[in-house]
Write a structure and sequence with these properties.
The chain is α/β, with parallel strands linked by helices. The chain is about 50% helix and about 10% strand. It is built from 20 helices and nine strands. It has helices at about 10, 15-25, 30-40, 50-60, 60-80, 120-130, 150-160, 180-190, 205-210, 220-225, 225-230, 250-265, 295-310, 325-330, 370-380, 390, 395-405, 410-425, 430-445, 450-465; strands at about 85-95, 135-140, 170-175, 195, 240, 275, 315, 335-340, 380-385. Strand 6 (about 275), helix 13 and strand 7 (about 315) form a beta-alpha-beta unit. The radius of gyration is 21 Å and the shape is globular. The protein binds iron/sulfur cluster (2 copies).
Length: about 475
């Protein structure tokens, strides 16, 4: 029985509610009056229920679909401005006891090279990432209590925050590790993590169990209830996502929104971010084995409707997507992207030899960070290396209140300008620097508040003089 506030996975992700929602959406996919009503109401930027969003996702009316795109773009512009937050994944260990059939780290894969970074190797990786210009990382590990215990992750976080190479500084460490206990989440919180990220992969319990045949991850309830435990452990910002292509996209789209609604209803705050990875090739993984893989068109529609349904949740796309694909979804609602990424263990410091593949998936957008910054500037986006909110205590419901009142943009824009300036001073190529300076001058003039503009201008002067790390 569907119960949004229940602590049980099968009640807040009720299978029948998802099936009924999909049926309702199918019945109404050409219902002009209803669709018009939903789109008009979504214009208040307050988001939509999973049922309403499912109808929009199924909508077959061309005119209404065009309206959806325009609305998603409007929401993106009003709530996020034109900043795009940058991050990089850092793979610490690919030992894994689970049997996930879509991931090359599954424990039966003998062709992949197993690695775990020592603290000395982490220092090298982080210096390489700092030298690219990154300030925000997402830590990735497989699940292995023996080879990769929580103590190792905690020690690694401490190491990462301690490294200051030249003007480099990792200021926010997000963590993507396996579902764990409330006590362990508390320890992660105490270690100063930003967002705790855990992808559901699929919300369809039966398929979930088939896709995760062995290991602790096989337990659907333990995995699905992880965000509740993380929040109980004091982690305010959580990031959810599914791996589109594992199951039918409509089912997982609805399940993901129900998860977001549950977190808001039961824990007082919805997810901080939603990621939208889709299945892609990797060692030992053939995408042809996944008949639910989604087309570009469907992928873009998902991003569009998510932007409208959960306006205040950041949306992330990784280098799994190509340059062209990222270009399209950036316009529709993506607010955060990775760049210059390496998905192998230890690959930033030195590239892996051909016969030592330890990567989780094949990167499609293989450009360097500077090329990505340059490309974003050319498209009129401000690449932002901002990490201010969690360092200023703007997390959880405090962040959501500022986001919902529209005030957060007053921080995002000047912070984007100032962190871009740091990047230009320390890491950019001459061409990127020239484009970035033009962007900074333009953006500075468009800061609406005189006082904020004056402070930001002062900080820019100090940044040029060698000072670092200003934030609103
Ligand atoms: S998806 Fe995660 S848990 Fe599953 S095999 Fe890969 S690393 Fe391990
Ligand atoms: S001010 Fe906060 S919400 Fe805005 S970009 Fe920075 S960290 Fe993100």
């Amino acid at each position: 029985m569907y119960n949004i506030k229940s602590k049980k996975a099968e009640e807040f992700i009720d299978n029948q509610e998802i099936l009924d929602t999909i049926a309702y959406a199918e019945e109404n996919k050409n219902n002009e009056t209803l669709i018009d009503e939903i789109i008009t109401r979504a214009g208040d930027f307050k988001g939509l229920s999973h049922r309403e969003a499912a109808v929009l996702l199924a909508c077959e009316l061309e005119d209404q679909n065009k309206r959806l795109v325009i609305l998603a773009q409007e929401i993106k512009k009003k709530l996020y401005g034109n900043r795009i937050v940058m991050f990089a994944p850092l793979y610490l260990s690919n030992y894994c006891v689970n049997g996930c059939v879509y991931c090359p780290y599954h424990h039966k894969n003998t062709t992949i090279k197993r690695k775990q970074l020592s603290q000395a190797e982490i220092v090298k990786e982080v210096i390489a990432l700092q030298d690219m210009g990154h300030k925000r990382l997402a830590l990735e590990t497989g699940e292995d209590p023996v080879n990769c215990p929580l103590e190792y992750v905690l020690e690694s976080i401490k190491t990462i925050y301690s490294i200051k190479h030249k003007n480099g500084d990792i200021r926010r460490v997000n963590v993507n590790i396996a579902a764990t206990t409330v006590e362990n989440y508390r320890r992660l919180k105490d270690a100063g993590i930003g967002t705790y990220i855990l992808f559901q992969e699929t919300y369809h319990k039966e398929n979930y169990e088939m896709l995760h045949p062995t290991g602790p991850k096989h337990n659907y309830a333990w995995h699905t209830e992880a965000m509740d435990r993380a929040m109980e452990g004091g982690i305010d910002d959580v990031g959810i996502g599914v791996l589109f292509g594992l199951n039918t996209y409509r089912y997982d789209f609805v399940g993901m929104l129900m998860h977001a609604e549950h977190l808001e209803a039961a824990m007082g705050v919805g997810p901080h971010t939603i990621s939208v990875p889709r299945i892609c090739p990797a060692d030992d993984i053939d995408t042809n084995d996944f008949s639910n893989a989604i087309s570009n068109e469907v992928f873009e529609k998902i991003v569009t409707v998510l932007r409208i349904a959960v306006p205040y949740t950041g949306m992330i796309v990784s280098t799994r997507e190509s340059q062209a694909s990222r270009e399209r979804v950036l316009k529709l609602g993506i607010s955060q992207i990775s760049g210059g990424s390496c998905t192998s263990v230890g690959g930033y410091d030195h590239p892996e030899p051909e016969d030592e593949n330890s990567s989780q998936f094949d990167v499609t957008d293989t450009r360097k960070l500077d090329d990505i910054v340059n490309w974003l500037l050319e498209m009129g986006h401000i690449p932002s290396f901002c990490t201010a909110c969690y360092r200023e205590g703007r997390t959880g419901d405090r962040f959501m209140q500022l986001a919902k009142s529209g005030q957060i943009v007053n921080c995002c824009q000047p912070n984007a300008i100032m962190t871009l300036k740091e990047y230009l001073e320390d890491y950019a190529s001459a061409d990127t620097k020239a484009k970035g300076e033009v962007m900074i001058q333009r953006e500075l003039q468009s800061i609406p508040d005189d006082k904020v503009r004056a402070i930001a201008t002062g900080h820019l002067t100090q940044l040029s003089a060698g000072k670092r790390d200003f934030r609103f």
